[in-house]
Amino acid sequence: MTDVAAFPSRALVREERRRRLGPLSALTHVALFVWTVLVVVPIVWTFLASVKSEDEIFGDAWSLPARLRLDNWARAWEQAHIGQYMINSIVVVAFGTLGTMLFGSMAAYVLARYRFRGNRAIYLLFVSGLAFPVYLALTPLFFVVRNMGTVPVIGPFIGLNTHGGLVLVYIAYSLPFTVFFLAAFFRTLPGAVAEAAFVDGASHARVFFQIMLPMAKPGIVSVTIFNVLGQWNQYQLPLVLLNSDRDRWVLTQGIADISTAAGYDADWSALFAALSMAILPMLIVYTIFQSQIQKGLTAGALK
Amino acid sequence: MDHGRTRFVAGFLAIPVTLYLIYVIAPYAQAFYIAFTDWRGVNAAPRLVGLENFRRLLADNVFWQAVSHNLILLVLLPILTLGIALLFAFLLNAGGRGGTGGIRGSKFYRVVFFFPQVLAVAVVAVLFQQVFRPDRSGMLNAPLIALGFEPIGFLSSTDVAFWSILAVLVWQAVGFYVVLFSAGIASIPRDLFEAAAIDGAGGPSLFLRVTLPLLWDTIQVGWVYLGIAALDVFAIVWVMTAEHGGPDHSTTVMAAEIYRTAFQYFKFGYASAMGVVLFFFTIGFAALALRLSRRERIEFQ
User: Fold this and answer.
1) Which of A285, B2, B235, B264 could form a disulfide with A235 if both were Cys (CB 3.0 to 4.6 A apart)?
2) What is the pTM of this model?
């Protein structure tokens, strides 16, 4: 598909098509521009409101701030506890994703590359989880986590209103997609290197960690991105499992609460600042890693 | 050797399978049992009542309102999202040039369009709550009022609120499918488009006769994703709307009713019965989608 010179007609064809699409081209850019505006303007508007005074916010929505009130951000960070919620989110997602990737890749590898009785059944058990609506499980899950809190010694770390409990739940609910995707990935890897390592006397675990896992890196990266974003953006599970201890809340809970619980004395400029604080890290991370993130999130649909 | 192999397999599966059984399989299994009990209250004991919950559910108008909202979303969310995304993917790739990158600025557009996808639904919900404010402080109502129109109650009018929800869902989802379809178009061999162009196909017929049929598999995947998303809508309704599904139940969905019934009214048996209904809608949709999607795949060399 690279040899343009060999087919001189190609250039003509392209010219012909450009002419045909000519009037459409202007309309194309108008349509694309309109959607760009629809995406960008609400976000920019939020950032602008985050440095407005209360009066400016309740005046005209499209007015510009007279001066930058950065103290809104300070109030959101301190008094609305956004700083605390963000740290909680980072802790939960770090451990949640780490655990998901470790246990998910272990299970996927064994299911993809070892034959044993029950293999198919376990694989289907994991994959069936992709279709279940989580809302059906909410009530029993609440009591499962509550009961885990009564387990001797480790109970206090994995019960209700603990980050440990939420991390374990995140891992368990991230396994279906992780196992499904990585098992497909491990199946496509060539076996020659691993066999050579076995001949040299390497153990099964060693072959996995030192040979197969590094070979699966592209797949691992995609699923990791998928899980980090999925767990970072999760709202339903923390709402049920961390309900009564505000100090342990994650960022999505904190943001949602400022607006749902807000009465007449609400600090609206701090709300916009909090909202901006939730958007800004995503904007930065997305700007840097956008192509990996696009690949990671769409990977499941392209398989 | 073989002993080591068995131990390895068991060792690698032990923790993931245990976690999965405790936190996923056991709760789902219990939910079906709880649905047949009258369990209410955190410290009460469940008692079997047969089909009583389901009988009550049949007469529960609010729940059926929620179901009807989910079903409307099930139809409209995929149609609107996939339609808009297909149009943009086609425009960005100028009908497809087979991996040459599309029109000028197409990468920029894809990056911008995709961004809402990485935001938490809860964050998007709060953001649009502000955008939709009913007075001069609302981003959308401010220009309307300035032009002398009546402000629109995007979230406060029972006729409008549901459509505001749908609009936000589409707003957030479109970019994902633009990227997905762009990748699909890029994998279509360029020769196909050029052959069609030589045969005299213009923009619209290129789209209908070449792009669309060759993207069909990807479109179906998108349809299944969006259908399941439509049945699972929760955060946007719970966070953005008044009264968590209001005004006057005009935006409520099944997931919101399940959560409210279980964790605000503590009627665990009744909430689980709602969950079972949702489960069968989801399984039914998945089965339907699988049935309809049996079609030969087109493989390129």
Assistant:
1) B235
2) 0.88
